[in-house]
Amino acid sequence: MQSNVSRQGEEDGHSSLRHAQFGSSSRRFRLQTLVRLRWLAVAGQTVTVLAVSFVLDFPLPLTQAGVLIAALAVGNIMLSLWFPPAQRLGPKAALALLSFDLLQMAGLLFITGGLANPFAPLICVPVIISFASQPLRHSLALIILALACTTALAFSPFDLPWYPGQALRLQPVMQLGIWCAIASMMCFAAFYAYQVSNEARLLSDALAATELVLEREKHLSQLDGLAAAAAHELGTPLATISVIAKEMEREFGNDERLREDVQLLRSQSERCRDILKRLTSLSAASEEHMRRLPLSSMIEEVAAPHREFGIEITLAQKGDPAKEPVCYRNAGVLYGLGNLVENAVDYAKSQVTVTTEHNSERVVVIIEDDGAGYSADILYRIGEPYMTRRNKEHERAGGLGLGLFIAKTLLERSGARLRFENRDGGGAGARIRIEWPRSMLEEG
Hints:
five-stranded mixed β-sheet, two-stranded antiparallel ribbon, 14 helices, 10% strand, elongated
């Protein structure tokens, strides 16, 4: 059962990843967000143009600049009127709007000195927004457009607004240097924004999958309680049916037409009561004996579903058996340990060893296999969500997917610390060490 839930959880996680990568709603942002950013751009451009023209008294093409700023403001007003604030932008719509913003900014810079304008790096802003929120192919199209606009700024025939009678012109080498600086900043910032947003999105999906798996485990562990509740609720109406059946048997016992039917009704009602009585006693036993269990019993329960795959699973215990910890049945711990054992069985050659250690302060579980061990490039990344699953025949141990992330997260929530390494410092198999403070494991 646990193995099936583990595989299902990992499939759900990978499905979530594909959903995030190929145009899901997680790649969309609200129109209201973009509208607010554009109003901020309108305000900033307006204040800058007015300050340059009237405070610094530099000659500036006010009419052309006003038209470009007004175009952005009118576009914003139209978007606000035509669409609700909560409208989610698809990738194509977002690309069109960000392209418009980019061209508007480029036009404003073009008529105010091109690359000589100290505000030229602002042309990177739409690109960074796109890489932080949009699919990669749409963002790449926008950065190509941005680089083309940056190149066009280098050929601007307009002088930078400056003191009357003085012309501030940049040498070609300086313009090339500014172009390279803007292009490199744009590419670096875009890559950084994409990586950070993508990792945050994947982590969010993985944590959601973790919560789903934990809820499933809790649901399975609570089924016995539901059975007890059902038995209790059905007991009274079945008792009533049984009493009525007895009365009917006494009343119509001599009637050949009804006697067999009445006897059948009574026998079946008694059978239902016996079934409910067994369910009640089973749930009570489970409630009493299975809510808490020794550490060795918990490990055996975790290992049992994986003994039928041709790999020998050996359980070893260090410490005084009389002082063995008694743990609460924690669905997260059971799932996490089961996933780690399952992974060890998948990549072991012939044997998996699960060793438990305990003293008055700590409890340790060590899971070892005799497989190929973890490869160096995988070992430092273990625990990241959505790692590519390794090829069982050609790669060393460690290409682990969402299942390990879920297991690691659930175990850490229970207070455990995990350490992944290779046995004997080399390729003699993989080792996972899980350690809890004893009080946290016993208190659940």
